[in-house]
Structures are given as C-alpha cells and as structure tokens.
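Box 3.1 A note on notation
Throughout this textbook, protein chains are presented in two layers. The first layer is the amino acid sequence; the second is a token string describing backbone geometry. Keep the layers aligned when reading.
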Amino acid sequence: MFDFDEELKKLPNSPGVYLMHDAADTIIYVGKAVNLHNRVRSYFRKIVGRGPQIDRMVQQIAGFEYIVTDSELEALVLENNLIKEYSPKYNTMLKDDKTYPYIKVTMGEEYPRILFSREMKKDRSKYFGPYTNAAAVKDTIDLMNKLYQLRTCSRRLPRDIGLERPCLNYHIKQCLAPCQDYISKEDYRARVEQALDFLNGNYKPILKDLEEKMTQASENLEFEDAIRYRDLYNSVKSVAQKQKITDSDGEDKDVIALAQDETDAVVQVFFVRDGRLIGREHFYMTHTQGCRPAQILLDFVKQFYAGTPFIPRELMIQEEIADIEILEKWLSSRKGSRVYIRVPKIGAKEKLVELAAQNAGLVLHQDKERIKREEGRTIGAVKEIAALLGLEHISRMEAYDISNISGFANVGSMVVFEKGKAKHSDYRKFRIQSVSGPDDYACMKEVLTRRFLHGMEEKEELSRREIGHEFGSFTKFPDLLLMDGGKGQVNIALQVLEELHLDIPVCGMVKDDNHRTRGLYYQNEEIPIDTHSEGFKLITRIQDEAHRFAIEYHRSLRSKAQVKSVLDEIPGVGPARRKALMKRFRSIDEIKEASVEQLCEVPEIPAHIAAQIRAYFEEKKET
C-alpha cells in the first residue's frame, strides 16, 4: 500500500520529473518541477479552481514516483521523453506525428545531386525547408533537374566514370552525363550553384535565360525545344509566384496560434523561411478539456520542437506561456544558436499571429462539420441499413462478386466494410478452381465455401493453440453478407451457411432493368429503399467496390495471359526475361513502344535480345 503522507515527506527540494500512477500501476500523468517537494504536494491540497481535469486525475492517483535532475532544463527534456514513451492519459498530447520533407543538395559529393529527404542530418549537404507539401517538393526537385540537367543516379563519381554507358536521362536531355566525363567538374559545380541560387529564391536570372532560349528556338524554327523552354519557364514562374513575402527581415520563424472549444483544440503553425511563407500546418491536441490556451501552447511547443529536426530563429506565439526562458535555452541548445520566443502585441507580426488563430478556428469548425457529415455517410448509413432489415447491430459487412468473360478465368472478389468504411486490408481475391464455364451460382458457392471454411479452420487453430488474438482476415465473420444479386445469389449463400452450420444474415442487392440497385432482398421479400438516403448510397458504394475489385483481378489475369502468349513468340525471351520485362514495364503496350535503349535498362535483357524484341514488334506493326 502506497503511504502518501510518508512519501510526500521524502520529496526533495530539487528540480525533476514526477510520474503519477493509477491503481493498475499505469502512468496517467508526467510533469516537471523546479521544486519537486512543493509541486507534487500541491496536488494533494484542497485547491479550488484548478480545473475539473486535474481534479479527476488526482482522484485516480494511487501512487507516484519521481526522478531528480541537475537543472530545470534537464527536467524539461526528460519530461518530453517520458510523455512520448508513455502517452499518459491526462497529459495534453500532440496528436499528429508528422515528418516534413526537405530538399537536400549533396554538397559533400564531387558531383552533387538534389534529393528528397525526410530528415536533416549533420553532414556536408545543404538542406532547404522544411516544407509541408511533399508533392510540391518532388515537383520542385524534378524541375531543378530538368533546368540544370543534374544527375539523379547513385553512381559513385568520379570513381565510376566511364564504367557504364549513360542512362536514359542523358538521351532525353535531362542529364549532362558526368558519369561519362561529358561535362567538367567545374562546369557541373557552376550549375549546382545556380540551382542553390534558385532554391534561395533568386528566380530572375533563370526566367530571363529561359525566355531568351525560348525566343531563340522559336526563331530557329526549333519548335519542340521552344515548347520545352516554354513549359520550364511556366513551371519556374509558378514556383516563384507561390512564394509569398511575409516579412522584410528575411528571418526563419514559426507563427503559432490555436483555437479551442469545449472538447478539442487545434494549433496552427505558419512556416516562414527567409522571410517567405512556405507553408502552414495544423495539429490536433488531445486531452485539452479544462486546459487554458497558454498551457496547450506550452505543451505543443515542448512536444513539437522535441521531434522536428529544424528549429527557426524565432517563435511568434499567441499569448504568454510559462517557462519561456527555460524553453528558449532548450531550443537554443538544440538549434546551436540563439532562439527567441515572442508574443507580438502590435503591427504586422501581431496580425500574422491573428491570421494563424483564424485559420485554426476555421480548421476546428470545418473538421467538426466534416466529422459530422462523415459519420452520417458511414456509421449513420450502417444504422439505417440495420433498421431497414430489423437487425440490432451491424459493424462488419462483406460483399461478393464474380467476374468472367464467357467462362474464361472465373474469379471472385470479397470486399469488407467496417462501420461504413472500406477495410482494404481484408479484401480478398479468389481464382475459381472447380467451375469451368459461365456458372455464376457455382462460382459463388465455391468462393463462400472457401472463405468460411478458411475462417473456421483459423478459429480452430487459434483455439487449439490458445491464442487470444486474430491472425487472419478470414477469422472475423461478418454481421451481414451482401450478395450482388437477388433471390438466386441469396439462396446460394444461405445454402453454404446452412451446410457449415453458420448463422449470418444474408441480404441481396436487387437491381432494376437499368442495372441500378432498387431495393434489398431479405428473408424472402424485397424491401424498398429510399434512393436518396445515406444507407442506399453506402449499399451502392459497396456494390460498386465489389464489382471493381473483381473486374480488376480478372483484367490482370487476362493481361498476364496475353503477355505470356506474345512474349513467348520472341526468340531469346524465356520465363526469366519475360518476368523481368513485366517487372520493369507495366503492360504489353509499354513493351511494344519501348526503344532498344529502354529495353536495355532491364539488366536481364542484353543488347541483341533488346534488338530482337524491337524488331519483332516493328514487324508486327507493319503487318
């Protein structure tokens, strides 16, 4: 039994971290203190106005422990680590765990590359960011490589110069092939410096250069080059216009503000780099009921900047928070240079913080509405279907479909929806083994029999091995079976379930003459359904998904059969080379259009075989 009076007396007058435990010995709160003796004892005094959340937490405390540190700064770092490790119930927690992309220029290499990176390492590379839009970062890197024709390969240069022929990028004029020594190291470095200048926001020289090249190519009637320069010009202009100037001092800063209601809180961060607003992001904070905005902001700053690799020179926050001096000291030690936390009161900076707060409020309001609408589309729709069929509860629904063309390659699909949402990890495909010819009923019987037998065998195995958790998607049986058809399909399903001694409701999705769902067939009667209801829309989504999944599987089998028959006719192409070609190219059409150089990029395809493949398809085209 934990003796509170005795343990409270032992508390030292030192900085440190304390951990509150409940009756199950679970850590429910982690906090730091300048003086452990005073801070921990304060929880067990009768204090009015400290908030219902803390009162509830104190009522659950069955014991505590503490760790003494040398300084308040050490206590701050340790508190962060322990919160991240234990995720205590009563700590305000940063819900989002995001990593932001950077543009990395590998200046440590003799022939540098421009790469996408999710982390910022202490190496000789230069990093730009962080950015909030990964797709935009990839587009920018792609644009840079096209503009400056830099290498994207992982060859070790200059060691590997001349060892292999240049890749496709050289042939399509997107690389100057330093791997062949076609460009000097000095000229290559000059292009890298231009790229760095571009990334630093100096767009005018490249825009002027591209405009001149576009005009010159047009005058020389080189229209393909002119179009290429025009597209590059428009891409650079688009990137330049997206950079919105927010401050004239050119500093790196994060602008932080929040919006809060009775149950939730959203923190909005504007990322300003070199005086430019490069992006914004919002973060949800949990366990915020009864918490003051200043406390939520404090917890956000501690948790967010403990995990992000980049720390700006300045944080502009919405209101005064506790421990600003110690936070500045901690952030400065992480960054390696001075970091300031400021609360703007007037002027443009104050307006920027206010704008962040407005955005946070907008996100909070919109997400409440979105969640409400989403629940209507999912959980609400499931409840509608349950009420329509007279079932008490539905959570998991499974739908099945059969696909074939004149009996060729019969396949079945199983799609799963839980609480009105597709559960893609539980989808399954079936290649029909016992049926030849177009017999959908026999195919469906095989699919359902295999599905439920598999599930029963898995359950038996779990029981035999006394394992308490599920290890396969077949183990969990549905609350409702949806058949893509009416009475015939339903009766097949009921027959399978009866043979296996399973009791699962089965419902058919009845279609009209235009192949649109008009109602549900359940317990030998057709039940009309409101075509404007969310339940009907969910039924339609499930039906479409089962159909799509079956069709895609059937199409893939047809494609493989076609590829095999075509490629096997080419001399020198056996199973290994056929497999290598299909791994590199997505379809037979792509192989047909591939050049000899592209075919040779497949390691298993030597030059003479590539020539034979090209010649084969050229001959087919002529005939």
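Residues 243-248, 467-471 have pLDDT under 50 and may be disordered. The longest strand covers residues 276-286.
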